[in-house]
Write a structure and sequence with these properties.
The complex is a heterodimer of chains A (145) and B (128). Chain A has 145 residues and is mostly helical. Chain A has three helices and no strands. In chain A, helix 1 packs antiparallel against helix 2. Chain B is mostly helical and 128 residues long. In chain B, helix 1 packs antiparallel against helix 2 and helix 2 runs antiparallel to helix 3. The longest helix of chain B has 38 residues. Classes of the chains: A mainly alpha (145), B mainly alpha (128). At the A-B interface, helix 1 and helix 3 of A face helix 1 and helix 3 of B.
């Protein structure tokens, strides 16, 4: 059959024969992984919403705490920092899920590599939090024992 | 091209190796924190009267779940490390890592939903 010279270029046209091909089982694993990662990011966003409500309530009640050195404002600032950290984690998780799914559905390794970049950012954040938490736990254990 | 080998760029392989390293850091620190927390709670609970000894189960279950979750993350990280550092069966290791990572995120979501449900039930019980 003659090839249509006016056909739009396709992404698979210049891909090597016998390239990256995921099995249906692999596709279903990654689709399911992406769903759970997105689910967790939605829970993080819901938590951010609750924190935003909490910080608004703290700011509203801050007037009564002004005499105590503006504690309401300081608490609201801490809430905002936590919201930014969780927001970053949620968006990295969401981007990683999208990239993994895109890569596996299109049998393309580039989006998978990008997904690992986002997953790495997410894990670096939780790694730093984990190290701080471990240091605090060891400090507490030394105090107790 | 062999289907077992995935032609990631050098930069992507560095990203995968780095993600695997940080995944191992998260898993090991979480398991260590869980173990220390369990030991501290058990030492506090050892002074409880014998009728309340069943409370020991709470931190034990909590620690078991933490260890299980982070073992999955550790296994996923080790599989991703093999993807980055070897060229023998990239696709197999990648899917093995994704399978463990799915279990890690799935159980986290389920635990958070259960905690929210229990919180709502407790608040209904308090206010009704």
């Amino acid at each position: 059959m003659e090839q249509n010279p006016f056909a739009p270029p396709s992404a698979s046209a210049d891909r090597p024969q016998g390239g990256l091909v995921f099995s249906p089982e692999g596709v279903s694993i990654v689709a399911s992984l992406a769903t759970w990662m997105r689910g967790l990011s939605i829970l993080y966003f819901l938590f951010i919403g609750l924190l935003a409500l909490g910080s608004c309530a703290t700011c509203a009640g801050g007037g009564s705490l002004r005499g105590a050195g503006g504690a309401g404002g300081a608490i609201a600032f801490v809430f905002i920092v936590v919201m930014v950290v969780i927001g970053a984690a949620a968006s990295w998780l969401r981007s990683a899920a999208q990239d993994f799914e895109r890569g596996v559905l299109s049998d393309d390794e580039m989006p998978i590599g990008q997904g690992f970049g986002h997953l790495r950012s997410f894990l670096i954040l939780f790694g730093i939090l984990g190290l701080l938490s471990l240091a605090f736990q060891i400090y507490q254990a030394v105090q107790v024992l | 091209m062999d289907a077992a080998h995935i032609p990631f760029t050098d930069e992507d392989e560095r990203k995968i190796a780095s993600a695997a390293t940080w995944g191992m850091i998260v898993a090991i620190t979480s398991i260590s924190t869980g173990a220390i927390s369990l030991l501290m709670q058990l030492s506090v609970m050892s002074s409880l009267p014998s009728g309340m000894k069943a409370l020991v189960l709470v931190p034990v279950v909590q620690a078991a779940v933490t260890i299980l979750l982070n073992l999955w993350l550790l296994q996923a990280s080790l599989a991703f490390r093999k993807v980055a550092l070897t060229d023998e069966a990239d696709q197999e290791y990648l899917l093995a890592g994704f399978r463990k990572l799915r279990a890690y995120f799935m159980v986290q979501v389920i635990l958070i939903l259960v905690a929210i449900g229990l919180g709502l039930l407790a608040s209904f019980a308090v206010f009704s």
